[in-house]
Amino acid sequence: MSELVIDQLAVRVGGKTILSGVSLTVRSGEVHAVMGPNGAGKSTLSNAVMGRAGYDVASGSMRLDGRELLALETWERAQAGLFYAMQAPTEVPGVSLEDMLAAAIGASGGAAGDLGERLQTEAAAVGFDLALLDRSLNVDLSGGEKKRSETIQMSVLHPRIALIDELDSGLDVDGLRTVARRIEQLTESGMGVLVITHFPRLLHELKADQVHVLAQGRIVASGGPELALELERTGYGDYLEDEPPVSPAASRPQIDDPFFMG
Ligand code: ADP
Ligand code: MG
User: What is the mean pLDDT of residues 197-221?
Assistant: First the structure.
């Protein structure tokens, strides 16, 4: 049983406060979705949890199975059991998917063993063209192929907790279903998921447990999967900054009104 506990996390990016107190707990086998308007800080949250440079944690804590992540380098967080499928995965010329996974497995003290075979099976499971396995990591892959590649990595590494940022960007409907099913299987064997998405469809495929709305730098609402459907109808308007209060002077009628009680 694993647990990622994000507690009152405040994050500054480029000198601006983007997150001002986000609290969220993800346990083994659970799927938590973070939704919210563009620019709300959803990717900032996953970048900060993974320790990406430039995402400065101003206060709060993040613990994986009781271990504070703040003091750890990104690779140490990965070794501790976190995986981050980025919104726009990085291209690494000269390093194949197999090279990268062999290094990751080796660094965690595992044996790569039948990795080549394993990759073929996992690639077939998510419809990733086997010919692409020889390419450099993410280089010249389409958006959808990159997301399939991330899913293969997740399947092979089987992290404790996976942060998945906009898996839906670039995947067609069939691809999304295939990839979501593979991830759902991983959750059944204990992986916890924090998924960022705009699409209730994906949450349905992943059998999401909880949906959280990130706006104004914090989680402003949490609920079951029905919250995602409601958001699709209503948008995020209700969660955005309130209109500034109208001052009494401004609300005074413009014309001389004998019945005005102000
Ligand atoms: P979301 O994923 O919710 O759409 P982001 O977390 O990507 O939002 O961005 C939140 C805000 O932080 C935006 O205003 C964005 O421009 C800013 N931001 C994010 N990353 C960086 C960065 N590396 N440098 C400067 N500004 C950034
Ligand atoms: Mg984003």
Answer: 94
